[in-house]
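anyone seen this seq b4? input:
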Amino acid sequence: MGGGTAASPTRAPRIPFVLLVLCLMVSALVSLLVLRSVVAQEAYAITSLQSQNRGLSYQEQELQDEVAHLEDSDRIAEEAEEMGMEQGEAPLFLDPDEGEVVGGQGGAE
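predicted toks r here
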């Protein structure tokens, strides 16, 4: 009987220690899995945002090209003529030093 009681105190502390080590290992594995899934989700979000950014850059370039086309003075003049507008006469300017009116049909006189 004396041998049975002596073996019991040495085995009792080992079981909680083994359980503690197993719990730590399981919690470490679970933490790694959660961390890996979060990183994968963030990587997917980054890839999605980069793709969206690329699409918006293409759209911005197309809009800039369209604005450049719409600002073209030849296109504006053609469209104005199609609407029935006519080109105005050249402006006249008063030269106070000479006391003359300059400009008009032939430009500066």
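The first helix runs from residue 2 to 70. The chain has two helices and two strands. kinda curious what u guys think
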